Amino acid sequence: MKVSLVSTVKDAAEHVGPFLDSVRGQTRPPDEVVIVDGGSTDGTLEILRAEDGIVVLEEPGANISRGRNLAIARATYDVIACSDADCVLDPHWLEELLRPIEAGADVAMGVTEPIVDGFLQACVASLNLPDPSELDEARFMPSHRSVAFRRAAIEAAGGYPEWLDVGEDMYVDHRWRELGLDLRLARGAVARWRLRPDLPATFRQYSRYAWGDAVAGMHPERHAIRFAAYGALLYALGSRARWPKVLSVGAGLAYARAPLARALRRLRTPRERAAALVAVPALLAFVDAAKIAGYLAGLGAARRARPRGQPEAYS
Predict the structure, then answer these.
(1) pTM of the prediction?
(2) Whole-number average pLDDT of the chain
């Protein structure tokens, strides 16, 4: 089986070298690598051009969807592996990712693990990056920094949605599920991903994710529950009765249980674990505030951005 590895990049000079090193270090190397640069000005292109055996396409101004579609169109082979050029791939990533494809799957879903630099990133990673053992194959929606698929699968989905600047991978995942394609989990296919370095960047990141959900009509029930939950919390805090406050504390603890469990498993020192008991719930509220703000902004842009004929909602 021949496989093309495709990726997009823009202004990642600091990180593209480790990504390329991890590609070269694969136990099962890709048969070709196609990378689309969206208009880098920081030296990323020079690094890519100096690398032998890589097809580099330049498309200034392209979003991720446009870049991926261009890379797939240029790719030679009918099995496509996809990642981001600021990731670091485990040496067995492609070998493990191809196992489900070789067994007949349409899509192989790899996993993401965080590259953690300090306490803040460890706590943020606990919010939305579950351990591979937690994933349910029947419900998992993979990030396309760690995925492989047959060309026919992406063609059936209509390609990546170039009208959507963020959340394009979740949109394609929804299409694949809707079409009833064979999606199988490859728990051993690990792409390590760099988290945002500080709180403002983290807020912008999750706000943009929620903006993409609103524009594409994805996860409306999930966002409605978030609005209702925080509305109920505000009611409880303003109520003179005791029972709403007790209920809100219990609901908050249940909500934070899984992220707290991850953080306590991943953090090494008793001092860090104790701090996480406060930091993780606070970060959950912080990230939820970003999602609420982003979703509200996205609702205003949805009708203008969503093409005619695109479904109103993907739950």
Answers:
(1) 0.90
(2) 92
Question: Would 124 be classed as within a structural domain?
Answer: no
Residue 20 is predicted with a pLDDT of: 96
Pair 74, 208 in one domain: no
DSSP per residue, 72-109: HHH--SSEEEE--TT-EE-TTHHHHHHHHHHTT-SEEE
In what order do the strands lie in the sheet containing 4-9?
54-58, 32-37, 4-9, 79-82, 147-150, 107-115, 183-194, 88-89
Q: Could you list the residue range(s) of the whole structural domain that residue 183 is in?
A: 4-117+129-194
* Listed residues 137, 166, 194: the one ending a domain: 194
Q: Is residue 123 included in any domain, yes or no? A: no
For residues 30 and 157, state if they share a domain. Answer: yes
Count of residues for the chain? 315
DSSP β-bridge partners for residue 33: 5, 54
CA dihedral for 2, 86, 205, 249, sign (positive or negative): positive
Instruction: Give the CA dihedral 136, 221, 124, 26, nearest 10 degrees.
Output: 40
Q: Is residue 314 part of a domain?
A: no
245 and 273 share a domain?
yes
pLDDT digits (tens, 9 = 90+) for 108-151: 999 999 998 889 999 999 998 999 899 999 999 999 999 999 99
Containing 7, the helix (H) or strand (E) segment is strand 4-9
Let me know if residue 63 belongs to a domain.
yes
Q: pLDDT digits over 253-292, tens only? A: 888 899 999 999 999 899 999 999 999 999 999 999 999 9
Which pLDDT value is given to residue 27?
98
CB within 8 A of 272, min separation 6: which ones? 119, 122
